[in-house]
Amino acid sequence: MRRLPPFFTALLFAAIALTNAAAAALPDPVKAQLVAERSALAPGATLAVDLHLQIAPGWHIYWRNPGDSGLPTAIAWRLPPGFRAGAIEWPPPHHFVAGTIGNYGYAGLADLLVPIIAPKGLRPGAAAHLAATASWLVCSQICIPGTAQLALDLPVLAAPVAPDPAVSARFAAIRERLPQAADFVVRAEASRELLRLSLPPAAIAGIAAPTASFFPLAPDIVDAAAAITSERRGDGLDIVLKRVTGPTAHLPTTLAGVLVVRGSGGAERAYTIAARPQAMPAAAAPEIGWAEALLLAFVGGGLLNLMPCVFPVLALKLLGFTISVHRAEERRHAMAYAAGIIVSFAALGGLLLLLRAGGDAIGWGFQLQSPIVVGLLAYLLFALGLSLSGVADFGVGLGGIGSRFADRAGLAGAFATGVLAAVVATPCTAPFMGAALGFALIAPAPLAVAVMLALGAGLAAPVVLAAAVPGLARLLPRPGSWMLWFKQLLAFPLYASVAWLVWVLMQEVAPATSFLALLGLVAVGFAVWVYGRSRAATPTGRRVGVGFAAVGMAAALTLVAMLTPSGENAAAVRSGPHGIAYQPFAPARLDALLAAHKPVFVNLTAAWCITCLLNERTTLDSVTVRRAFAARGIVALKGDWTRQDPQITDFLQQFGRSGVPLYLFYSVRGTPTILPQILTEREILAVVDRG
User: Any idea what the CATH number is for the domain that residue 641 is in?
Assistant: First the structure.
């Protein structure tokens, strides 16, 4: 203002003085009155008092959160000793927009209820003087602050008196408009620009053509001038609001406010709600379609063949084609193998749907959260590895694959091999599977089963393709003694998988209990050894060998049945001396960090997730990534899904995922970015630099 010429400065001050004088000369647009529900007070009783405000046409006053401008209406009480005034009970406000300014308030009439609590020692026969100063800001083209000195003088009686019927009806009408605590759950999702509230069917039941508005209790959350959009979603309703931008914008851990639902014919309901906002991931906004989900599932299933549990089964099946001369039977075997895989994945999909229908929070790999399932898988792979090493022949070696193409037992064996491939593939999550399985998690039952079938078809595709195209089998080396060496070599990926599963088991059970699992491996080794050694014995010797093998397997099954989860669930949170310093993941901890505008990296993992472990060892624990996190003050949270954790399951589903890994980076603005399942240093650094 010092830069203005003196003439313009004087003119400006004159204009301000004239405006204030004009405003002062106007009649007060608001008339205030205190109305008591009862004509007398009683010791210890609560009296409802109404601050009744009549507002001139074209003017409005403000709610407790006035919006982009304005001041909330206030009451300053002056009460006799011992009296207490409660908080104002606010009716739902109206929405006023003028250009780029939006406000919440009242026009026409406003009734603000206040409870006045009288002391228990109040002496009957006296009189109580209840005085208050009501203040407001009333606005139209201009804004005028207003005040009123109000008072009530009420006699004190020994017992409460009944309210006057006319007054009673008035207070009943006021209370009917007050927001009621919602008896339903509202889901809130937030992105950098938008806030979405998802209302369940109970919120709009009985209301024709419903629309809704939301009024937050705190400022700087919602852009009060922006339009509020209501969208039908199935039997529910979504409200989409624009968020405030700028340095004062924030998103509280708990979003509290008043929800107003309106319908045709003037129907209206008001509720008080409180919801914990979840992230609305930018990468998840364009949901994949069913065709893309099926394609991703097929590709992901094909990549499962490269996992160490599955690759030996695939390699042996393909090598069988090199020593087969019956191409027609070879194709039938390939189809039986594919049928075993697809039937297994269909059964798994049906189980997932049944559990989902029962309300269970589950995802891909849920079976590995059971120590018994992990123990059984370890025993199965150990027995198969011993078979490939020559300790015993269960018909899955090269002889079993290549010599039985002419009988029906071979088809049954091929089907069983497909089932085996599906079983040993379930601990793994290949690239491209995450989005497809997330789609299956929320899709209708037919589409969910179709995704699972596409996953199985991808797993079976290499064998079916090799059988359908004879030239592919000719690309393999000619049969020879190398095949026996190669078969025995394939046992070692299985042994590595056994070691990994035993390590997973040790994360899930107490140390003393894990010793039982190791004894079970000894029992399995004994059963396979005695079975293999007795094959060349006399018939009696073979029967004795089978009996001892059965005893060994029974002992192993007994030991695995004794495995029980331990009470701890933080194994995956621990980091090595050269790894990222993780904190345990919890939604409340994430909310607190985001509220403090901290950049956050979230790593949801499990001990049985091979992809997770490889990402940590090869990328996340690298010096470059650790230095980048430290330089930018990034807080790293790790969630362990090795055993069932409903909080992590719910969080995965919010991002369209049904299993781990899930990697998220939250910028200081709270915007999440989903990183790929296979991480590279370049991708991580690029996301961090953008944040």
Answer: 3.40.30.10
Q: Which residues pair with 101 in a beta bridge?
A: 98
Rg of the chain on CA atoms, in Å: 36
User: What is the average pLDDT across 457-466?
Assistant: 85
Q: Kindly state the helix (H) or strand (E) to which residue 78 belongs, with its residue range.
A: strand 74-78
Are residues 368 and 608 in contact, defined by beta-carbon separation less than 8 angstroms?
yes
What percent of the chain is modeled with pLDDT above 70?
80
Tokens found for residue 81: 């000793």
The answer on 588 and 484 residing in a single domain is no
Please give the residue that has the higher pLDDT: either 79 or 24: 79
Q: Which domain holds residue 66?
A: 27-167
The pLDDT value given to residue 76 = 96
Do 320 and 456 fall within a single domain? yes
Same domain? 402 vs 450: yes
Q: Which of 235, 258, 280 is where one domain is finished?
A: 280
Are residues 322 and 263 part of one domain? no
Q: Residue 334: what pLDDT?
A: 83
Q: What is the 8-class DSSP label of residue 537?
A: S
- Do β-strands 194-199 and 187-190 pair in parallel, antiparallel, or remain unpaired? antiparallel
pTM of the shown model: 0.46
Cβ-in-10-Å burial (0-12, 13-18, 19+) of 21 comes to exposed
Which of 456, 490, 524 is where one domain is finished?
490
Asked whether residue 153 falls in the same domain as residue 85, the answer is yes
| Sheet with 74-78: strands ordered across | 74-78, 127-139, 143-155
- Tracing tokens 């080794």 back to the chain, one arrives at 525
d(CA 643, CA 663): 19
421 has pLDDT over 70: yes
Identify the CATH number of the domain in which residue 105 sits: 2.60.40.1250
The distance of Cα 432 from the centroid of its chain, to the nearest Å, equals 20
Q: What is the DSSP string of 453-485?
A: HHHHHHHHHHHHHHHH-HHHHHTSPPPSTHHHH
- Domain annotation covers residue 387: no
Q: What is the mean pLDDT of the chain?
A: 80
Q: Establish if 196 belongs to a structural domain.
A: yes
Whether residues 275 and 130 share a domain: the answer is no
Residue 670 lies inside a defined structural domain of this protein: yes
Q: Is residue 613 part of a domain?
A: yes
**pLDDT the model gives residue 134:** 96
The pLDDT of residue 10: 45
Q: Are 448 and 440 in contact (CB under 8 A)?
A: yes
Calpha distance 437→43 (Å, rounded)? 65
The answer on 213 and 141 residing in a single domain is: no
Tell me how many domains the chain contains: 4
| Mean predicted confidence (pLDDT) in 348-353 | 76
pLDDT category of residue 286 using cuts at 50, 70 and 90: very low
Based on the domain organization, do 161 and 297 belong to the same domain? no
Beta strands in 276-342, from DSSP E residues, in sequence order: 278-279
* C-alpha distances out from residue 421 to 68, 349, 494, Å: 62, 16, 12
Q: Does 78 or 355 have the greater pLDDT score?
A: 78
Q: How far apart are CA 549 and CA 308, in angstroms?
A: 27
Mark 373-390 as b/e (b = at least 16 C-beta within 10 Å): bbbbbbbbbbbbbbbbbe
Angle at 434 between CA 428 and CA 439, to 5 degrees: 130
pLDDT digits 0-9 by tens, 182-204: 988 888 888 777 888 989 888 99
Compute the distance between CA of residue 317 and CA of residue 299 in angstroms, rounded to an integer. 20
**How many residues belong to the chain?**
691
288-344, pLDDT tens digit by residue? 567 777 888 888 878 877 777 777 777 766 666 655 546 677 778 888 888 988 898
